[in-house]
User: Fold this.
Amino acid sequence: MTLKVYLSGEIHTDWRDQIITGAQGLDVSFDGPVTDHAASDDCGVEILGAEPDKFWHDHKGAMINAIRTRKGIADADVVVVRFGDQYKQWNAAFDAGQAAALGKSLIVLHGPDHAHALKEVDAAALAVAQEPQQVVDILRYVLTGTLPG
Assistant:
């Protein structure tokens, strides 16, 4: 069995690298959003032209980024959505909702401080992890039936 995993959410820490490195040797392919924050924010105006109004600047970028995100989530077998501590990631919540609506296997990743705020998102997930290694352990178990340790 091969799994296509889409890694969505927070872009300010190395959680994606931890999962990708930990999953080496498993039959898994990974995809995700553009994680270069400046490129993600400015892609719309860089490609389609400047906008004096910040709303339209952000709107153009969000629409172009949505092309990649929609394709990645639609093609994924498993969607992992990470909520970090530093920012409120409304886009991550949106991605989790989209994955749930499409019937994707959803793993939510966040610390205990977000448990109450994300209770509805967590309720839609098949697993709620606190550490990237737990996501790796889930993928290993799903693919091989092997428990950690």
Observations:
- The mean pLDDT is 96.
- The chain has six helices and five strands.
